[in-house]
Fold this protein.
Amino acid sequence: MTRRYGFYCTTPEKNLALMRTAYETLQSGDLDASATMLTEDFIANVPGMPDPLYGREVWKLGARAMLKGFPDLRIQVEDMFGVDDKVAVRVRFRGTHQGTFQGIRATQRPVDFRSIELYRLEGDKIAEEWVAPDMMSLMQQLSAGSGH
């Protein structure tokens, strides 16, 4: 834990504020600014992967893929709470499928799906994430009636 800001640097209130800023920065499309909010040795725990992924660049690849597929992506935090160094979020994503995503070419369809996400923070940075997006719902919205 970083002590630069003293004992209170990991209060739940500060962690919630950091996560709100992180979602806003991601929605703005500024991936470089978003990546600076992550620790250098950031850990991403992704469904379907047997082992965690490491580093800011790996995170940026995933975020870039989302923003390429859904450049008008809107992120709505529906619930967020924090305890100690953890923050849990129920988040809703909406956008229009305007670019290739997961091998599916742009359909121009609107999408609306949710994710449950858990974050661990170290000082004023996001150190680890566990994400569980509803990929089944998203993929159904992209492929419905499209022959995919």
The two ends are 47 Å apart (CA to CA). Residues 1-8 have pLDDT under 50 and may be disordered. Residues 12-28 form the longest helix (17 residues).
